[in-house]
Automatic annotation (TrEMBL):
Signal peptide: none annotated. GO terms for cellular component: membrane protein complex. It holds the Pfam family ABC_tran. Keywords: ATP-binding, Nucleotide-binding, Transport. InterPro entries: AAA+_ATPase, ABC_transporter-like_ATP-bd, ABC_transporter-like_CS, MacB-like_ATP-bd, P-loop_NTPase. This is Putative ABC transport system ATP-binding protein. GO terms for molecular function: ATP binding; ATP hydrolysis activity; transmembrane transporter activity. The keyword Transport applies. Residues 20-247 form the ABC transporter domain. Belongs to the ABC transporter superfamily.
C-alpha cells in the first residue's frame, strides 16, 4: 500500500497536471471604513488526484480560498482556472453548472435539508447532475444502508456528516472541497470521516481539498498548505501520507 516509489511517481505525474490554477488571486471585504484583506495575492495549483490539506488558524483565509475554488465566491483580483476554463469569464449559468457538476462540498455543520431523509438528501444532489452514481451504492459506501430513511434530526453528527459526504460523492465530482469536515465531531468519528474522504480519492479519483485548523490532519495529505494572515506561508509535500487511522491529534 505505501510503496514510496509509487507515491513519488504519482506526485511527479500530478505536478504536470493541474486541475485548478489560482493566479495572483486576492479577496478583499469592505466593512464600512474598514478593509479586510481576507486573501492576499495567492498563486497555487491544485493537482489532479491529490489530497491537499489547508491548515491555518481561524481567520487566516482558509474558507475564503476554498469558496473561491468552488465558485461560491469570486476573487477581487486575479484569475481562477478549472481545467483550463477561466471562471472569471463564466456567466451565472456557467458558474452554477460548474458548482453543480464539478464540485462536491462538505461543510462543518453538514447543511442537510432537515425535512428530507438521508436518501432524499442524496437523491436531490443526484438529480441535479448528468450521470450521477447510484444513490443506494453511495449510501452503502458511507455505511448508511440501514439509515437511509432517517431524517437528519434522527442521526448523530457523524451519521449526518456521512450523509453530507454521500451527497457530495453521488455527483462523482472532480473536486471535493471540505471545510472543517471534522470540526463538529469527536476524535474517532472524525477519523472515520477522513477515511471516507481518502476512499473517495482512491476509488473515484476525485481531487480532495480539506480545510482544517487541526495540524496533524496534514499528515494524511499528499501536500499541505499552511496559511497565515491571508497568505500561503508554506507548501509542503508529504513523501508518505498516513492513513487517517494512524493520525493522532
Ligand atoms: P478561516 O476560514 O481561515 O477562519 P476566513 O476565510 O473565513 O478564515 O476569513 C478570513 C478573513 O476574512 C477574516 O478576517 C474574516 O473575518 C474575513 N471575512 C470572511 N468572510 C467575510 C465577509 N463575508 N465579510 C467580511 N469579512 C469576512
Ligand atoms: Mg473557515
Amino acid at each position: 500500500m505505501t510503496n514510496p516509489r509509487k507515491n513519488h511517481e504519482r506526485r511527479a505525474d500530478m505536478t504536470n497536471n493541474a486541475l485548478m490554477r489560482l493566479n495572483r488571486v486576492t479577496r478583499t471585504y469592505h466593512m464600512g471604513e474598514v478593509t479586510v484583506n481576507a486573501l492576499k495575492e495567492t498563486t497555487l495549483d491544485v493537482y489532479q488526484g491529490e489530497i491537499l490539506v489547508i491548515l491555518g488558524p481561524s481567520g487566516s483565509g482558509k474558507s475564503t480560498l476554498l469558496n473561491i475554488m468552488g465558485g461560491m465566491d469570486l476573487p477581487t483580483t486575479g484569475e481562477v482556472f478549472f481545467d483550463k476554463h477561466n471562471l472569471g469569464l463564466a456567466n451565472d449559468n456557467q458558474l452554477t453548472s460548474y458548482r453543480r457538476n464539478e464540485i462536491g462540498f462538505v461543510f462543518q455543520f453538514y447543511n442537510l435539508i432537515p425535512d428530507l431523509t438521508a436518501r432524499e438528501n442524496v437523491e436531490l444532489a443526484a438529480d441535479l447532475v448528468d450521470g450521477p452514481l447510484a444513490v443506494a451504492d453511495v449510501l452503502r459506501d458511507v455505511d448508511l444502508a440501514d439509515r437511509m430513511d432517517h431524517f437528519p434530526s434522527q442521526m448523530s453528527g457523524g451519521e449526518q456528516q456521512r450523509v453530507s459526504i454521500a451527497r457530495a460523492a453521488v455527483k462523482n465530482p472532480r473536486l471535493l472541497l471540505c471545510d472543517e469536515p471534522t470540526g463538529a465531531l469527536d476524535y474517532q468519528t472524525g477519523k472515520l470521516i477522513l477515511a471516507l474522504l481518502v476512499q473517495i480519492n482512491r476509488d473515484r479519483g476525485s481531487t480532495v481539498v480539506i480545510v482544517t485548523h487541526n495540524t496533524p490532519i496534514g499528515d494524511m495529505a499528499h501536500r499541505v498548505i499552511r496559511m497565515r494572515d491571508g497568505a500561503i506561508a508554506e507548501i509542503r509535500e508529504n513523501a508518505s501520507p498516513l492513513s487517517p487511522e494512524r493520525i493522532e491529534w
